[in-house]
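User: two proteins, same treatment. go.

Assistant:
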Amino acid sequence: MMRSLWSGCLIALPSGAGVAMSVLGGNGASLVGVAISASLLPPTVNCGLLWGLGAIKTVRSLYQNTYVVYDIYNHTVKPALLPPDTYTPTYYPLMDKECAVLGIVSFLLTILNIICIIIAALIILK
């Protein structure tokens, strides 16, 4: 996940420079919108989608019966919380917790992008 934070930072720095240049040039509205949406919109939307999916998985699992999953631990789990067959969990084997943590990573990427935009704009404007 550190790779996504670095790549997000590399996208946000030119966006901040573009914001500063557009403010200096006098045509700020259109370029600021494009620069901000290119660096802030994708991780923010991803964060909301992941948290929403995690909430849906949790609510759906309240009404399901548990069954035994035969793996190393042989634990009981509700079907809504199981990951799809083609997905390999990164942090947690249950999808509600996995979606919550991945949403936190996306939120951190949004915060990092905001900081990088401010830093790049301050460097250009000074």
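Protein 2:
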Amino acid sequence: SVHIIFRHGQRTPDTSYVTTTGG
């Protein structure tokens, strides 16, 4: 699932990041 995550100080929906972190 695509979640709003914090990266580089801003909220970015990043499918790859979510997959990497296990969502």
